[in-house]
Amino acid sequence: MQLSDFSYDLPEALIAHYPLAERSASRLLHLDQDGQYHDHQFTDILDLLNEGDVLILNDTKVMKARLKGKRASGGAIEVLVERLTSDRTAFCHIKASNTPKAGAKIFIGEDAIPATVQGRHENLFIVEFSQPILPILEQYGQLPIPPYFNREAEEIDRERYQTVFHDPDKLASVAAPTASLHFDEAMLEKLKAKGIEYHFVTLHVGAGTFLPVRVEKVETHVMHAEWCEVPEQTVEKIRAAKARGNQVVAVGTTATRALESAASAHGGELKAWSGDTQIFIYPGFAFKVVDRLITNFHLPESTLLMLVSALSSREHILSAYAHAVAEKYRFFSYGDAMLIDKLSAIKSA
Questions:
Q1: Percentage of the chain surpassing pLDDT 70?
Q2: What are phi and psi of 312, to 5 degrees?
Q3: Is 233:196 a contact under the CB 8 Å cutoff?
Q4: Greater model confidence, 63 or 122
Q5: Can you tell me the distance from the alpha carbon of 211 to that of 249, in angstroms, rounded to the nearest whole number?
Q6: Per-position b or e across 313-342, b if 16+ CB within 10 A of its CB
Q7: Cα(57)–Cα(165) distance, rounded to whole angstroms?
Q8: pLDDT at residue 27 above 80?
Q9: What is the DSSP string of 189-215?
Q10: Residue 123's pLDDT is what?
Q11: Average pLDDT of the residues of the chain
Q12: How far is 343 from 337, CA to CA, in rounded Å?
């Protein structure tokens, strides 16, 4: 497969730079198991799911991971904390006029809190802060909203770029699991009232989710690593749903990657698991857990577009996206949603 196989044309005007007034007010495009698509409102998800189905949500919380500061020379620098490795050290992306070397001093925020670049870890910098990192992020950090917003984080993002069900003790992501942003408390209550369960996994989203694929042959791409956890309670609920003939509906590509990583780690059988995952899901992948996926619209030539193409098919996804463009759906993190069914066995044969 070639990278260009996953390209499509998107007018700039369809990129959602801000959220709608209400989380659940977005539109929903349903791509069924036969590759047919149907226009809905997101609130119709209640009618498109069945009693006994299980939704799997990612309960991570987004850090205010973008820090601005200066180098010892006075030059501006931007630090994006990718992963905490202790209370004072982290793997980071650094944006500066010149690449800092090991031993370089940087100073964060108005109070010029010192930090030291210790070296490199793959494509990231190892940075040691002179104080605990989380309080620094809370005081000086900005939410690392996606680059295609073409703006700085604003007050509205403090609430709307977080899910309503995030676990405050799981403050470790640099991007939101955006499919979950459509769910508000009222929607979750209605799901429960219909007998639709929801349970949690954790995947701490890294900045690599925004990086472009830089190889032309898709199969040679190497995914960035992200930490995830699939707890035993969630595994038990999924097994019970499958046993009674219900479906497992992953909310977002991050929940999908967590579930399929846990199954892949155990030879295809879903078991409780935690660790780093570099799973790369593209057409030809055999899903072991996920039956349906609620997700947003994804960037052209992205690994996320490849993932949704694996669940349905590249042709069906691109056809549905062309329809979404024609019908002026809103795209990307603050945009509209899709419900994608796994391609039927007859269609995929």
A1: 99
A2: -100, -105
A3: no
A4: 63
A5: 26
A6: bbebbbbbbeebbeeebbbbbbbbbbbbbb
A7: 9
A8: yes
A9: HHHHHHT-EEEEEEE---GGGGSPP--
A10: 86
A11: 96
A12: 18
Cα separation of 181 and 177, whole Å?
Answer: 7
> What pLDDT does residue 345 have?
66
| Tokens representing residue 76 in the block | 């501006």
Task: At 20, list the tokens.
Answer: 């709608």
**How many CA atoms does the CB half-sphere of 47 hold within 13 Å?**
7
- Say whether pLDDT at 9 is over 60: yes
Tokens 């904390």 map to which residue?
81
H or E element, residue 38: strand 37-41
DSSP state of 318: H
Structure confidence at residue 265 (pLDDT) = 97
- Name the pTM for this structure: 0.95
What's the CA gap between 306 and 280, in Å, rounded?
9
92's enclosing H/E stretch is strand 89-96
CA distance 178 to 162: 8
Q: How far apart are CA 173 and CA 82, in angstroms?
A: 8
Separation between Cα atoms, residue 339 and residue 292, nearest integer Å = 7
Report the distance separating Cα 307 and Cα 338, nearest Å. Answer: 13
| Mean pLDDT of the region 264-273 | 98
pLDDT number for residue 250: 98
The C-alpha angle 177, 179, 180, rounded to 5 degrees, equals: 75
